[in-house]
Design brief:
Two copies of one chain form a homodimer. Chain A is an alpha+beta fold. In chain A, strands 9, 10, 11, 12, 13, 14, 15, 17 and 18 form a nine-stranded antiparallel beta sheet that branches. A four-stranded parallel beta sheet of chain A has the order 3-2-1-4, with helices on both faces. The first copy, chain A, has a four-stranded antiparallel beta sheet with strand order 5-8-6-7, covered by helices on one side. In chain A, β1, α1 and β2 form a beta-alpha-beta unit. In chain A, α1 packs across α9 and α3 packs antiparallel against α4. The first copy, chain A, is globular, with a radius of gyration of 21 Å. The first copy, chain A, starts with 14 loop residues before the first strand and ends with a strand. The mean pLDDT of chain A is about 95. Chains A and B meet through α1, α10 and β17 of A and α1, α10 and β17 of B.
Chain lengths: ~400, ~400
């Protein structure tokens, strides 16, 4: 469907297309439906988490131009819950007059992490020192940049994949092939993040700065704390940087801005996601308007909602247990977790669990952050998803 | 499906059946899915509001024993979002070992308003004076009870239907045929309500007492205010009565208890709904655990969640506009309403609007109740659903 004008708001019962049917798309679907929109989803897995709630799902890959076309042409507006989409196909659909938000240009910029860094650098956003790698990375290029460094592939990396930590020549065996760039290793004091929304009119709203706490043994996210436990001047500086980052990208929607606070007190941007982000899950319960509704409001050309946080919150992912392999999920400890006041459980409806697969999350609201944090630790020790028997 | 034991909790990804696919079932479905349950719905309208979000819908009437059977046997647990269900069929399904909550016995008690009154009277719950009518109501029976009185049909009345206000002999033409009873007209100061949850273990939690504000011209609910604007001792007394009412019913689930505060300061029970209730819509955004999640927790045998209210709230229904007749809904004023901080819009996805049909609701959160109330009045003047052109 072709909207009459791209400056006009998209109003329910219009249909919104979501490319990507994972948990982010699922929560976007929940909020879009609450507002009265119809929703269609494109995802390669039949019965995807979002597809289960949408009016219909088109099953196909994100680089399948025909399936992208089939989704977009049946929707008044299309958005996405992940970055790995064929931008050439998206741009062609835009040229036909279809509304895609954030735009194909913005997505292309984000997909190339070096291009993203270069764009932010041109706008004066603080980042780790970085440098292009011409062709395949060579020991000479690395030595010229100096150690320790982080090599990142330009496209397609996620959740730590496509990133190599090179502390010196002894690590050269870890070098990644293909187009990449290098950046200075940050001596990290804390990993921070902020969800920022930008409307069609350029109105911007930022949620509270949050803090990621890692389990030092497993190097896995242990929990997220909202707001971050940092000095007010650090929070203010980080929030300014995150807002400036989204402003210079000029996109429409919700953006997750990941930041590092270094041990020397510097704040730099790690990377930007052009969509709702894991670090904003807590907004579903803790804030007046969740990041998922906010994204739908923004891409539909509607006014942004209040980002006020009503309660401090801690959020932990629910991963498939590392023993027991793959199979239909079986939940242990749910009753115990629901007995914790303020513990809100999200299970994504994935048909199969695997070790460390993200199967859900729990947000715990507290009267203060420490109460929420302690309850979230208890949740972490209690809730287990293992592979059960086929039903 | 037959559960192993009715005292055992029903755990996701078990399937919950919901008889009734309206807006209450829709919000129950949203929360059940968030917890990881699968959901099936029985409703006569294909693509009902709840059916749109459920894994599947069975299309059929609530007194169609075969369709009830088809739903219940495919679910680990069945509940409902309305009272007008064939209890004989439900009881037969219970006898086969299927889990239905609240139970068929409780539903039958609630369906007969005179039976409900008699049960509450036996447990000392304050109510308006009431009396059975033998056979068809006669002028002699009414005169013996005294005027003014309210005649109510015993079964099937709702939203003011099945109720006749008889102020004296001049009103005898309004008398309702069929099984009925009479009760004393209460000189109402305020209509109040309270959502009360009761778990399988008999644990009970009550949400804040709320107040219904009526438009004196149209005799339509203008808005609901949470908490109610009453003196603390009135609120406490009303809450005690509502809790005692649900306790004496002994059911499992969420119950909406409607109360009258009389001009002389008396508090009496009007009636009880054995399900989430319109007067608890505000809990979706304003409370830590919504009435819809609470109902799912209760019927699944899981612990009840916190009923803490995070913000004062005002809720108004969105009705089909009284001009323009029936047709696909067209929303006016949505952008203006979403620009009001704290205004949360629910549109139920009904395919057709009609004058005064309930098409959605808006809950407004405020820093104080008066702020929420004033914003809700603005919403009421701004949001319009009219019949639009066929798409």
């Amino acid at each position: 469907m072709l909207p009459m004008s791209s400056s006009q708001a998209i109003i329910p019962p219009a249909r919104i297309g979501i490319i990507g049917g994972g948990q982010l798309g699922r929560m976007m679907t929940q909020k879009a439906k609450r507002l009265g929109f119809r929703v269609a989803v494109l995802d390669p897995s039949p019965g995807s988490p979002a597809g289960q709630l949408a009016d219909f799902q088109i099953t196909g890959e994100f680089d399948d131009g025909a399936r992208l076309h089939a989704l977009v042409e049946r929707c008044d507006l299309t958005t996405y819950d992940l970055e790995g989409i064929d931008v050439v196909a998206l741009r062609a659909l835009e040229k036909e007059g279809h509304l895609i938000r954030p735009s194909a240009d913005l997505l292309e910029l984000i997909q190339d992490k070096f291009g993203q860094r270069s764009h932010l650098a041109r706008h004066g956003i603080p980042q780790p020192e970085f440098r292009a790698i011409e062709g395949e990375a060579t020991p000479e290029q690395l030595a010229a940049f100096g150690y320790p460094l982080v090599q990142k592939i330009r496209r397609g990396g996620y959740d730590g994949r496509g990133v190599a930590l090179i502390r010196g020549e002894a690590d050269h065996s870890k070098l990644l092939p293909g187009p990449s760039y290098v950046e200075r290793l940050v001596d990290i004091e804390k990993e921070l993040a902020m969800i920022v929304a930008r409307s069609v009119d350029g109105d911007m709203k930022g949620y509270a700065l949050v803090e990621m706490v890692f389990d030092p043994r497993a190097n896995l996210l242990e929990m997220l704390l909202a707001p971050a436990r940092v000095a007010p001047e650090i929070a203010q500086r980080a929030e300014e940087i995150a807002m400036a980052t989204v402003e210079c990208l000029g996109g429409v929607g919700v953006f997750g801005v990941e930041l590092f606070l270094s041990k020397s007190g510097e704040i730099v941007v790690n990377e930007v996601a052009p969509r709702p982000h894991n670090s904003g899950h807590y907004t579903y319960e803790a804030c007046v308007t969740s990041q998922f509704e906010q994204h739908i409001r923004a891409v539909a050309g509607l006014p942004l909602g209040s980002v006020e946080q009503m309660r401090p919150a801690a959020m932990g992912n629910v991963l498939g247990h590392d023993e027991g392999g793959a199979g239909p999920p079986k939940l242990d400890g749910l009753a115990e977790v629901l007995a914790i006041p303020g513990a809100m459980v999200h299970i994504y409806g994935k048909a199969e669990t695997r070790p460390f697969r993200k199967m859900g999350h729990v947000t715990v609201l507290g009267q203060d952050l420490e109460e929420a944090r302690l309850k979230a630790l208890k949740v972490k020790d209690t809730l287990r998803i293992r592979a059960g028997e086929q039903r």
